[in-house]
Write a structure and sequence with these properties.
single chain; alpha/beta; Rossmann fold; four-stranded parallel β-sheet; three-stranded parallel β-sheet; 11 helices
Amino acid sequence: MRKTVGIIGGMGPAATCDLMEKIVALTSARCDQEHLHLIADVNTSIPDRTAAILHGGPDPVPELQKSARLLEKAGAQLLLMPCNTAHYFYDQVAAAVTVPVLHMPNETAAVLRQAGIKTAGVLATDGTVRSGVYEKALAAAGIKAVYPSAAMQEQVMRLIYDGVKARSAPLESIPVPDILAQLRQQGAQCFLLACTELPIAFARLGLEKDCLDPTRVLALAAVRAAGGVPAAADPW
């Protein structure tokens, strides 16, 4: 019996849609009825996670928990959070409900370990980088995390916030190839797109080679956990 999947969305709206599209694409189905039942709460009232972690901004936990409870009440039997930075608050969200919540960084680290990756370049928000959300998950899997320089990290943030969220800066104006080259010089064997806006940007730029998309990892893990039939063996 398949489980109903609930998505704690709105972080941001485009990333929520991206996850849903990937769940559909990664489900082997011949008709509507063979797809998973998805419920999404696109809660755009959830405060910015990076601002909360680094700058004392409004606490996102109450809204995250509110969405989780709403989805459980609506019938969700498995929850997903399509926001990497939000996993800093994972324990508090998971404690608010009785249904399982998949952990995107841990799922991603497991995929990298299975692929034999020893060093991964992490592209993420300042909140994810400085809070160690991915560094902890990767270290537990025996994988070294490397990051852009401070100057290049500013460009990563521009890509996320101006390029995708606000759409106020052309993606091509941001030196993404230079960021990747810098990470390769540090030994990165692959690039971890550890912010849910980044897979959207990289797809538009055509720079998906050697990249692992945690949104796709989460989507495939959700298909399996919910009892769907996966359309791919792995998320690469």
